[in-house]
């Protein structure tokens, strides 16, 4: 089966969760299906779903007999323990002759290359592909299709397609995340269940109160997004260069999936048959009556604002409308001495061949006052944030040159925005192509930035947003020019020590601070600008000017950066101070302090404590600035 419009193939891609569902869906008017196997995919939370190996073979044979395609999701992050299993699984999938894999982790791309396998790769939405430079890199790596970032508008999609010719796959219907792909670590730090490994506990669906400036605002479910709905925009999707129209719903029942396939399939066929007389709304009422949540076109036509937030089902705390919730509000675990002792023992078992003679201290700062102080204190590496939290302003060229003149032995790095638009590449490309800035490197936040700036002559440091979870991904990035990698903040203790054992590359980890656990285009501050307050209450740990999301379990500050994006941070502070000796002996070469949210005096105290601990000196016991100390995802094995 194939559909064409102006000579361009159009694919309707359907989700299937089980082999029984597949047998019905494959007979429907879809062109391809996608599903997961017994492991290594992003839908591991529902027992009885996903395919056995035998079912993968049978499904592929049936689909090919009908001239349809099968894509298998191998789309979670791999731990070190997953690598050998992945090798066997990839060999099996090649033998099964599936049409492509949907992949998040660059380790899978590396394995396919090293093993010489004949497998096509489609980049998962969890790769968060959102700019042309990333697409060009993926093309060079042999990727044949990109599932675009959920935040990509159709105008950007058309530009990327016209410039690259890359096949683009776009979500047209179903459940969406509020955060950028692979940029939500909330489930990991609260439950030890990684959203990037198919085990998200959906803290975005909790009931929160929004609080700012001493006022409470009526936004009960401010992170619960509506379902994607592009049924009435088939012409715009085709015109934007989208070749694959993707329906979300591998956990949905067969009747619901068939309703979507039949409606969207009919709409595509009617448009191809008569684009001038095409009627957009034939099944609109039917789809609306059978919706799981209310509908939105999300970011397809620009930022949707609060109109993208769902309230029909009390924030959709229900699991597929059956009444089962993923989770209820849960506090971040406090750091306990018993857990510290367990981690010391685990780290002592790491036998890494290459160890740093002395760990070095890195600090990320948000403003010039913090930067000058960090230089005064002699930190080894100073990162100037590319996502500056307001009301501070971005670092200017003049600021950078000033700091480079006083940095002394401190190495100075310019951080890039976590998500970079085409405008950002224009701006940073111009800045870095001029006379030397006096910096010692760049902190790269996405793979497109690596592709764009690797030839500028600056050493590259991989940021947390690269989500390095295994040594293969680290080696892939190293081959692209990254000299030091920051470990994924989602790693449990077992996976953390596994990476330390297996990687020979310099590794950095965030050891202190309240880092971002959810990064999003969605602007929570808009709630305070369009709604009247319904009560008064001061923030407990941060200034009242900072918005917080509040449950009965705590308060999570949310910072808005200069790009208008929001960074939801931890309520507690990560503190690995009691573990520094063991981390160093296990081979961690760089310790990072996330300093953006602290005052200058608070940050100075933290820096001094870590500097003293690194060289084995006594230091004054640190007191938490926020709601207490936590070990983050290292709380969990």
TrEMBL record:
Pfam families: Peptidase_U32. PANTHER family: 23S RRNA 5-HYDROXYCYTIDINE C2501 SYNTHASE (PTHR30217:SF10), PEPTIDASE U32 FAMILY (PTHR30217). This is Peptidase U32.
């Amino acid at each position: 089966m194939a559909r064409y419009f102006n000579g361009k193939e159009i694919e309707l891609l359907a989700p299937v969760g089980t082999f029984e569902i597949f047998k019905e869906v494959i007979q429907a008017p879809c062109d391809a299906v996608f599903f997961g196997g017994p492991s290594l995919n992003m839908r591991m939370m529902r027992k009885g779903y996903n395919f056995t190996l035998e079912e993968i073979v049978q499904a592929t044979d049936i689909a090919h007999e009908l001239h349809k395609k099968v894509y298998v999701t191998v789309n979670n992050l791999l731990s070190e323990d997953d690598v050998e299993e992945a090798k066997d699984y990839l060999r099996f999938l090649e033998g099964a002759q599936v049409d492509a894999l949907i992949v998040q982790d660059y380790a899978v791309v590396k394995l396919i290359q090293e093993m010489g396998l004949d497998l096509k790769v489609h980049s998962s939405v969890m790769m968060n592909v959102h700019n042309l430079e990333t697409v060009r890199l993926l093309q060079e790596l042999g990727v044949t299709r990109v599932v675009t970032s959920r935040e990509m508008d159709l105008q950007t999609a058309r530009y990327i397609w016209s410039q690259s010719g890359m096949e683009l796959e776009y979500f047209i219907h179903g459940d969406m995340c509020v955060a950028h792909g692979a940029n939500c670590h909330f489930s990991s730090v609260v439950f030890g269940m990684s959203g990037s490994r198919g085990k998200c506990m959906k803290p975005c669906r909790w009931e929160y109160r929004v609080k700012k400036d001493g006022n409470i605002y009526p936004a009960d479910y401010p992170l619960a997004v509506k379902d994607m709905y592009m049924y009435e925009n088939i012409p715009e999707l085709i015109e934007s260069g989208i070749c694959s129209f993707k329906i979300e719903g591998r956990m949905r029942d067969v009747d619901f999936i068939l309703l979507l396939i039949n409606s969207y399939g009919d709409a595509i066929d009617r448009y191809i048959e008569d684009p001038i007389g095409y009627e957009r709304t034939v099944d609109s009422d039917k789809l609306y009556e059978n919706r799981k949540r209310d509908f939105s076109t999300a970011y397809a036509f620009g930022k949707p604002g609060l109109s993208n937030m769902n309230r029909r089902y009390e924030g959709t705390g229900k699991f597929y409308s059956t009444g089962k919730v993923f989770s209820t509000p849960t506090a971040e675990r406090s750091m306990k001495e018993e857990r510290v002792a367990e981690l010391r023992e685990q780290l002592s078992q790491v036998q890494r061949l290459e160890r740093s003679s002395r760990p070095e201290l890195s600090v990320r700062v948000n403003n010039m006052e913090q930067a000058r102080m960090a230089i005064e204190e002699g930190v080894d590496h100073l990162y100037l944030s590319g996502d500056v939290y307001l009301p501070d302003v971005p670092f200017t060229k003049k600021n950078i040159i000033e700091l480079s003149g006083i940095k002394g032995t401190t190495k100075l790095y310019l951080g890039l925005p976590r998500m970079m638009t085409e405008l950002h590449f224009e701006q940073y490309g111009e800045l870095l192509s001029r006379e030397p800035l006096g910096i010692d490197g760049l902190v790269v936040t996405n793979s497109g930035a690596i592709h764009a700036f690797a030839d500028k002559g600056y050493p590259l440091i991989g940021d947390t947003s690269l989500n390095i979870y295994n040594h293969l991904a680290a080696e892939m990035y190293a081959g692209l020019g990254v000299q030091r990698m920051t470990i994924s903040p989602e790693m449990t203790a077992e996976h953390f020590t596994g990476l330390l054992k297996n990687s020979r590359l310099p590794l950095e980890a965030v050891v202190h601070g309240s880092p971002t656990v959810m990064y999003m285009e969605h602007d929570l501050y808009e709630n305070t600008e369009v709604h009247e307050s319904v009560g008064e209450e001061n923030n407990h740990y941060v200034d009242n000017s900072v918005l917080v999301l509040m449950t009965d379990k705590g308060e999570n500050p949310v910072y808005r950066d200069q790009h208008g994006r929001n960074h939801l941070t931890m309520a507690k502070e990560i503190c690995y101070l009691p573990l520094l000796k063991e981390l160093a002996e296990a081979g961690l070469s760089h310790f990072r302090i996330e300093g953006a949210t602290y005052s200058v005096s608070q940050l100075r105290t933290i820096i001094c404590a870590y500097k003293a601990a690194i060289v084995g000196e006594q230091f004054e016991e640190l007191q938490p600035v926020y709601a207490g100390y936590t070990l983050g995802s290292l709380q969990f094995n």
